[in-house]
Amino acid sequence: MVNKVILIGNVGQDPEVRYTGDVNNSAKVATIRLATTERFRGRDGNLQEHTEWHNVVVWRNTADVVEKYVKKGTQLYIEGRLRTRSWEDQTGAKRYTTDIVADTLQLLGRRQDNQAPQGGYQTPGQTSYQQPAYQQQAQPQPKPVIEEQPDDDLPF
User: Fold this and answer.
1) How many Å separate Cα 116 from the centre of its chain?
2) Which of 6, 56, 123, 130 could form a disulfide with 61 if both were Cys (CB 3.0 to 4.6 A apart)?
3) Is the distance from CB of 78 to CB of 70 less than 8 angstroms?
4) Of the ranges 44-48, 57-61, 112-116, 146-150, which one carries the lowest mean pLDDT score?
């Protein structure tokens, strides 16, 4: 079974950051409203747009990154999984909502838009923050070593 979501979109409002549990045993969680827009030509040939809004949830250390660097208008790349939850509204009716629980979050856009940390970020077993490609340091490539090996020195 596969439950995988990949989104590239813009944050529609500043993220909401909160803590779960009590003071000593709480986890940070951030909720992001992400807009993705599909552009297509209608039957009449005119360009049309359809915007879809997604609730994205990030936990723990990635929520720290969101709190520091993500704001309304930030462009994000998100990889995650769908999670549907239910609750009762004020009238007692059962309601459902589907969230994307992010496993990977990457800041996109122009450098001045995102003042991200200089290193990449990985949370073991949970979520990850990946440094944008424009901030990755260019590593010198080692020169290839060419060794002559006899033709009959095959590993099989």
Assistant:
1) 14
2) 123
3) no
4) 146-150
How far lies 72's CA from each of 49, 150, 155, in Å? 20, 62, 56
For 10-56, the DSSP string reads EE-SPPEEEEES-STT-EEEEEEEEEEEEEEE-TTS-EEEEEEEEEE
Residues forming a β-bridge with 54:
34
Per-residue pLDDT band for 145 (boundaries 50, 70, 90) equals: very low
Residue 132 has pLDDT above 70, yes or no: no
Instruction: Please name the amino acid found at residue 81.
Output: R
* Cα separation, 57 vs 87, whole angstroms: 17
CA distance 136 to 23: 36
Determine the average pLDDT of the residues in 111-133.
46
